[in-house]
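Notes to self after the Tuesday call (sharing in case useful).
The group wants a holo model before anyone commits to mutagenesis around the pocket. I volunteered. Ligand is 4'-deoxy-4'-aminopyridoxal-5'-phosphate. Logging inputs and output together so the record is complete.
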Amino acid sequence: MIIDTQDLAPQDWAARFSARMAGIRASEIRELLKLLEQPDILSFAGGIPDPALFPAGPIRQAYAEILGDGAQAAQALQYTVSEGHGPLRRWIAERMTRDGMPCEPENVLLTAGSQQALDLLGKLFLDPGAAVMVARPTYLGALQAFNAYQPAYLDLPEGALTGDKAAQAAVEARKPRLGYFVPDFANPTGVSLTLAEREALLDLAESLDFPLVEDGAYRELRFGGEAIPSLLALDIARNGSIEAARTLFCGTLSKTLSPALRIGWICGPKAAIEKLVLLKQGGDLHVSTINQMVAHRVVSEGYDQHLGNLRAVYGGQARAMLAALERHMPAGVSWISPEGGMFVWLTLPGGIDGKALLERALVDARVAFVPGAPFFAEAPAANTLRLSYSLLPPEQIEEGVRRLAGLIGE
Ligand code: PMP
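Result:
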């Protein structure tokens, strides 16, 4: 029998998806940014590490040494425990301790990048309708991770961390179940919370009794200013021990070693980590054993020197971008100078829409960036955009900014 497939009605998949899929949608901007494949476009879009900075040599050597040793190869290619490879877990606990967050390996769960950490934390804390308090704007990937758990978002109102009682009352009225923040060099704004804002955020979380997720993805990429204690460090300092803290810190080796290794972690009180281990087990059992062993070998030697190099390169790129913005941007455009990370956040004069500007920039200026609107959980500010300087050398940053400024000037 020959069936003409054109006559068959397609399955009505949409009717079968779970209710939670209503909040899961593709981003228009990703579609637009597919144009980036074209080689003559200068891209400030991808918030990703410069591949020239990957420690490919040490990574290659680590794989070779592990696989060249019978006993290690047998371990590396086998399943492992959901908590994570012991030596790497210990290294992370020691590193967190040195960064002001005294903890034990049992306070650490290895995850497939910090993106999976956000998914697991959403699963752990969020019922449908639960209010998640986020910065305005915030990391789009966190919204995407949490969306599967059908939360209701609440932007941190202006003034809530600087003593504005009305703003604090607005937060209280929404009864947050969770707070999510990127206190150091946030994606997308590059902004860091001041020490006073961090303390105020902890005060707010304490008084309304909700847990905090601290996303420390860029924390190690400071190239200017003074280090500020993490939220978790301040939380431990005020409560005496990580077991009494309400903050869960998400870390990652993606920005410092390589995102392809997919090595991230959650560090927090054991009572939460133990539940997260069960979720990790149900989700994907564990992070790749060999990648954890490789990562451990690579970070065990010369990691701080490597970080110094990254900071010098990203700092140089950031300075090039800030100088180019000063030189070329027309009046009415403002931006925030970062002290670390990969991003500069631009605000355009009110009438200019970031997405419309991107459409023209790709065609007329051969420059790409990410419009700001998708980074807002509530009421997007369309006249914003995110520029990343991590992928281009200073001369091309200058040229890209010049072209973009020309277009905005029109
Ligand atoms: N958090 C933030 C703020 C990020 O910018 C990113 C990467 N874009 C992640 C988490 C996730 O990174 P990974 O899963 O590679 O650790």
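Two things stood out.
The CA atoms of residues 324 and 398 lie 5 Å apart.
The mean pLDDT is 95.
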